[in-house]
Amino acid sequence: MKYVIIGNSAAAAGAVEGIRSVDAESETVIISKEKYHMYSRPLISYYLCGKTDLLRMKYRPDDFYEKNGCTCLFGETAVKIDSVKKEVLLESGKAVSYDKLLVATGSNPFVPPFKGLEKVKDKHSFMSLDDALELEKSLGKDKKVLIVGAGLIGLKCAEGIKDRVAEITVIDLSERVLSSILDEEGSEMVKAHLEKNGINLILGHTVTEFTENGAVTDSGEKIDFDILVTAVGVRPNTSLLTDIGARANRGILTDSSMQTSIDGIYCAGDCCESDDVASGTSRVLALLPNAYRQGEAAGISMAGGNAEFSGAIPMNAIGFFGLHIITAGVYEGETCEKRSDGCYKKLFYKDNLLKGYIMIGDVEKAGIYTSLIRNKTPLSDIDFGLICEKPSLMAFSRKYRNEKLGGRIQ
Q1: Which tens digits make up the pLDDT trace of 355-407?
Q2: pLDDT at 409
Q3: pLDDT, tens only, 252-304
Q4: pLDDT 10s digits, 7-55
Q5: Model confidence over 324-350: pLDDT tens digits?
Q6: What is the mean pLDDT of residues 303-310?
């Protein structure tokens, strides 16, 4: 058997380890357009602010590939899959044959067609290590930076470079920062914290035109900058599979074993969709632990074992300048809110189930809320009043604690 994996991030690591748990000998090939050992992409902002280095960013030890018998084709871009011949065609002209194939190509930055964008000489995305290394070359204490996008990527970029430049302005068409994961109250709290830490925010507006070192907004305001970062959004990188007829919505559709609609081809990570337990829908759940678990399930299945990926929910754990944020699930139904100095919590519940939550500041024991959502625990089975006040195992029945925790908590 010959296994081929396109991609070299968390899903690839899961796939390799899943394959080797079943098949210790067969050939495994990893194709990656990047030239690096697999690394943790969320750490690129921490690299820029000096909280980590290239060595500690590695997702697996240096000998990972050797120990797992992997042949690595780094710096090679897959451009086409021939599912009849069972070959992956590379930009270099090479063809790589496979018996089982995993596509784990992640997502690409989405850059709207801004007028005049081609005139900007020093512009960057912020998705990969190469992006971070290129941006780092431009940084300087005298530089002004404009970031288009006040979502997770744009704000992490702002945090990462804050102390290495003179000024940072972030603009977003939305009226709120982190509008995809926070409600109005939570967004206002984070906005105030970002501004307190020196980030200039222009919300509810967009850029209508760029010049070489400037931008004009829809309100007529002119913004001068030396460096531009576009962080408007991402799109799943699905073209390798959609070009050969794989079923897809926003992301590639798979069954629970992560096999696509094309026999022998699997998909994992940010380029595929999964069943969201909280909403009951199929959607892209771009989260590193999900990518690893999807890859592991795919690897086991490719090698002839039995594995399923399930229990996924949308979730984000992030922080900015020391302020911690965790969100999960969907925001529908009735709510329970708690505020205290520097902290905010909002629970969403419906049909006797916890559906989602937002926690800012004090995020201790957030995993208890996550478990309630993922396991669809009936709220009538717990002390929901106590859970609303504070996530505590004492809100669960003695029987539950004995079953789940071996009776350690009485």
Answers
A1: 999 999 999 999 999 999 998 999 998 888 888 888 877 777 677 666 655 54
A2: 44
A3: 999 999 999 999 999 999 999 999 999 999 999 999 999 999 999 999 999 99
A4: 999 999 999 999 999 999 999 999 999 999 999 999 999 999 999 999 9
A5: 999 999 999 999 999 988 899 999 999
A6: 96
The region, left, alpha or beta by phi > 0 then psi within -120 to 50, assigned to residue 7 is: left
CB 249 within 8 A of CB 259: no
- Residue among 221, 224, 262 at smallest CA distance from 240: 262
Q: Is the pTM of this model over 0.90?
A: yes
Report yes or no: 188 and 198 within 8 Å, Cβ to Cβ: no
| Cα distance between residue 119 and residue 125, in whole Å | 16
Contact call for residues 373 and 387 (beta carbons, < 8 A)? no
Angle between helices 152-161 and 129-138 (to 10 degrees): 40
Tokens of 126: 């912020």
Beta strands per DSSP E along 86-244: 87-90, 95-97, 100-103, 107-110, 123-124, 144-148, 167-172, 199-203, 207-211, 214-217, 222-224, 227-230, 233-236
Amino acid at 171: I
- With 0-12 / 13-18 / 19 or more C-beta atoms within 10 angstroms meaning exposed / middle / buried, residue 34 is middle
Range list of β-strands (E), 225-322: 227-230, 233-236, 265-267, 274-276, 281-283, 315-320
Integer Cα distance of 66 and 114 in angstroms: 45
Contact yes or no for 238/6 (Cβ under 8 A): no
What token pair was written down for 246? 């794989």
Residues 6+ apart with CB under 8 A from 50: none
Exposed, middle or buried, 8 (CB in 10 Å: 0-12/13-18/19+)?
buried
